[in-house]
Design goal:
This protein is an alpha+beta fold. It contains six helices and 19 strands. The protein is about 20% helix and about 30% strand. The chain is globular.
Length: about 350
């Protein structure tokens, strides 16, 4: 007897699954360059990493677990071109992850052939070390407005936050919360938001908005034009253009520890020759803004954008920028979906 099998029901990924897949293929910061005098521990979407700079200057991002007996390499010793496990001293090459020395072996030719740790791509940008877990679905961030500027960067202190990347970026780029959350750092702000002029080109969203100095921490700097930019999944920036001072920048790039938790990496930059406050003072003021945001953002429910409409939300014109960020993220998810469809049909 012949049995006819019904065609398999195609597996349809939820938007949350697509969002996670897109983030695994996107660049995120995992350490500050200023901290690489010793190995750094990081977790990116559940993957435990070690970040370090060798004696020869190579910066590496690799799996944190030693494959011998599970030692934590972030507690190990950095050598000229490798990192050593703190447990038994096994050394792994920064360039390839291959085990290059086992101290307990008299004959180093007998190192187990498959003993190695996974190495990940590395980009050094904006004062941070960036990596990507899987084959990138998008390019590393490159803000067009900054290309002609000679910038000096200073990385801020990393901050833990109990919400996901999407919620964090939306908070960075939301303009309607200023009069309620940033009364100290920004001074009085109008509650009514003017019509927003927002443009989106693929993954990149831009908006221009004047800064009226008001009575906040920036009052003495005078008025400026603010150029808001963000890009899915995890870059949000403001470039301040002061007519008499020059350019200064604040940028945030949250790293997803998991889907609903981030470490906020961020930094400030001044154009060389900027006539306003120095980097340390800019960092102080911007940190005030971030720390005003944290207790409010950490109370948001759900803890990540409800991509699958599991929670009802309503929007108004003041949300135009963040809605375009969601469209940007959706485009990134669609890239993953289309690529998976092509792979399945090949």
């Amino acid at each position: 007897m012949t049995t006819t099998l019904e065609p398999a029901t195609p597996v349809v990924a939820t938007k949350r699954e697509l969002a996670e897949a897109a983030m695994r293929r996107s660049w995120f910061p995992v350490a500050r360059m200023a901290d690489l005098d010793k190995p750094q521990s990081a977790t990116l979407l559940g993957t435990k990493l070690v970040v370090y700079r060798t004696g020869d200057g190579t910066v590496a991002v690799q799996d944190r677990r030693c494959p011998h007996r599970g030692g934590d390499l972030s507690k190990g010793e950095v050598h000229q071109s490798s990192i050593g496990c703190p447990y038994h001293g096994w050394q792994f090459a920064a360039s390839s992850g291959a085990c290059v020395r086992v101290p307990s072996l008299a004959d180093q030719c007998k190192i187990p052939g498959r003993a190695a740790i996974k190495s990940y791509p590395v980009e050094l940008r904006y004062g941070h070390v960036w990596t990507v877990l899987e084959d990138p679905i998008r390019e590393m961030y490159d803000v067009e407005r900054w290309r002609g500027l000679d910038l000096e960067w200073l990385a801020g202190p990393a901050m833990d936050s109990a919400v996901g990347v999407g919620i964090t970026i939306e908070n960075f780029r939301d303009v309607a919360h200023f009069p309620f959350v940033h009364k100290v750092s920004m001074g009085p702000s109008p509650e009514v938001v003017e019509p927003l002029e927002v443009t989106r080109a693929g993954l990149d969203i831009k908006m221009e908005r004047p800064l009226n100095a008001s009575t906040g921490e920036w009052a003495e700097d005078g008025d400026a034009m603010m150029y808001y930019e963000c890009s899915a999944p995890g870059l949000a920036t403001i470039t301040y253009d002061y007519e008499r001072l020059g350019h200064r920048i604040v940028a945030g790039f949250p790293c997803p520890v998991d889907y609903e938790t981030v470490v906020i990496f961020w930094g400030v930059a001044n154009e060389v020759g900027y006539k306003g406050a120095g980097l340390e003072e800019c960092l102080r003021v911007e940190e005030m803004v971030y720390r005003e945001d944290l207790p409010i953002a950490d109370g948001i429910e759900p803890r990540e954008i409800p991509w699958d409409a599991e929670s009802q939300e309503f929007s108004v014109p003041a949300d135009l920028f963040t809605l375009n960020y969601r469209r940007s993220f959706n485009e990134l998810m669609n890239r993953v979906k289309e690529e998976s469809r092509v792979d399945a049909s090949a």
